[in-house]
C-alpha cells in the first residue's frame, strides 16, 4: 500500500514538472509580433467594408426619414389648405365632393349589375345557341348575344349626380350646419345628438332625402311622379329600404354630430354615403317581378317544323327576351327535350296501331 502511494506521488510530480517545463519553453520561444507603422492588419479591408456598409445604411435611413418627413409636411400642408378652403367655401366644397361621390357610386353599382346580368343570361344564351345559329343562317334578324347585355345608363348616372350636388351637397350643408344648430342647439351633449339623429332619420331621410332621390331619377327618365313614389313605397315594403338605412346611419350620425367638426360633417357624411348610394342605386333600379311570357317560351320551344327545318323565331321572343333570366328552369326543361319531326313520329304511330 505504501509502495503504491509513493509511485503515484512520483508520477504526479513528474507530470507537474513536465508541464512547467513546457510552459517555460513556450514562453521563451514564442514572442509577440511587432508590426511596422506602414503594415496593415490582415482583416483591415474587411473592417473597412463593414464600416462603409454601415455608413451607407445610416445614410439611407437618414434619407428615408427625411423623405417621410417631407411627405408628412406636404400632407399636413395639403390638409391645412383643404381645411381653410372648407371653412371659406363650404357650399362649393360640399357640392364638388358629393357630386363626384354620387357619380362614382352609381358607376360601381351599374358595373356590378352588368356582371350579375351577364351571369344570369349566359345559360339562357347557351340554350338558344342552336336556334340563334339557324336564324342567322336564314337572315331572320334574330338578336345576337350582346344585345341582351345592359349598357351604361348615362341618364341614371346624371340623376344621381344631380341628387348628390343639390341635396347631399348644398342642402345638407345648409341643414346640418345652419338649421340644426338653430333648431336643436350647437352642443355635443348626448341629448342634443340623439335629437338630431332621430329627426334626421325619421323626418328628413324618410320624407325628404329618399323621395327626392326617386323623384329626380324619375324626372331624368321622363317618368311620372306617381311612378317614382310607387317605386319608393314598393322598395320600403319589399326591399327593406328604411330598415337598411336606419341600421347604417344611426351609428354614423351619432359619430358625425358628436365628434366631427361642423365644416367637415358633409364630407364625412359623403364618405359613408358613397357605399350607401351604391346600395340605393341598386335597390332603386330593381324592377318588380313580372310573370313569365308564355308566348315567348312557346315560340322558342316550337321553332321546328314538321319536316325538321328551323323556322324564324316569333317576334314575341325577340321583343321580350327577359323571360330567359326570369324563369330559366322551365325553359331549360322545355328546350332540353329533343325536337322530333313529323316524319320521325309517323313510324311510332304505325307501330302503336299494329300493336
UniProtKB/TrEMBL annotation:
Topology class, membrane: Multi-pass membrane protein
Biased composition (Basic and acidic residues): 346-355
Subcellular localization(s) per the UniProt record: Membrane
Signal peptide positions on this chain: 1-18
UniProtKB keywords: Membrane, Signal, Transmembrane, Transmembrane helix
Keyword Signal in annotation: yes
Pfam families documented for this protein: Mpv17_PMP22
Keyword Signal: yes
Region ranges (Disordered): 335-355
GO terms under cellular component: cytoplasm; membrane
Superkingdom, natural source: Eukaryota
Family according to the record: Belongs to the peroxisomal membrane protein PXMP2/4 family.
PANTHER family: OS09G0315000 PROTEIN, PEROXISOMAL MEMBRANE PROTEIN 2, PXMP2 MPV17
Official protein name in the record: Uncharacterized protein
Organism name: Craspedostauros australis
Organism taxonomic ancestry: Eukaryota, Sar, Stramenopiles, Ochrophyta, Bacillariophyta
